Amino acid sequence: MKSLNRREFMKGTVGAAASLTLLSQPRARAAGEKIIMGVMGLGGRGTYLAEKFAQRPDVEIAYLSDPNTRRFARAREAVEEAQDTRPKMVQDFRKILEDRNVDALINATPDHWHGLGTIMACQAGKDVYVEKPMAHNIFEGRKMIEAARKYKRVIQVGMQTRTAPYTRKAKEYIQSGKMGDIYLVRVFNMMQHSKQREAPNQPVPEGFDYDMWCGPAPKLPYNPSRRWLNQWEYSCGPIPGDAVHQLDLARYLMNDIPYPKTVVHAGGVNALRDGRETPDTQFATFEYDSLTLLMESALWTPYIKKI
Q1: Is the pLDDT of residue 44 over 50?
Q2: pLDDT for residue 30
Q3: E-assigned strands of 15-100?
Q4: Total domains, the chain
Q5: Which residues sit opposite 298 in a β-bridge?
């Protein structure tokens, strides 16, 4: 599959989605047969997930995909050490979707690819494990749910905190009523991030399909010194991307309370004034019927110890 320029990519997305829909019937699997998976995004998290899934006796990682070929070697080595078969390495994740033998896609891309990548996988008849945060924005999240229902697919989001043994014990204790009625929940997520260093824009390195990396997001000049986590075009911000774990944990402990009636947010770039766009300090208040949930988070406060 040839590399597309940005205009061709965006123009062809609708046509590609229609073609994938024609391939959406999943293959029939015999009992005991391995689940065939492909991985989209080979950064630190994607490589870790590829290795861990490959270590399962009921899984085979058939594809590893990333627009940046410089990431191929480490991910391929990790998977080959964990399983007998060698995965195919591709820059364009659509090759994974075209393979009828693939059952599921692991989406470990930056936030801006979570929505479209997951929807296209559903259209191609693949189940999806997508990393948190589920989507770049609310609209994309709703469309992902619609796609899962329309194409009868399973989407699982990487909210592994709720499966931890200590989480289950905490929920059992709270739900037992021993703490009485709960009217206030406070969520803290204090992190320490370093400042990003400003540097001039650079040419796109050889072996990196930057058009594909940008995908549905605006194509900004290539500048590796600007972390994608700190740019609205590609991220909902480092705080939402991490604090979503703590917020999900709070909702789980409170018996998965539904949507709040109101949400009020305040924050900004207060300490890490390094050219970033997304906040380094955020506070949010979620109001429910008889419960208020407060979230406090910052990127310049090394005060929290995570287990």
Answers
A1: yes
A2: 65
A3: 35-40, 59-65, 88-90
A4: 2
A5: 190, 281
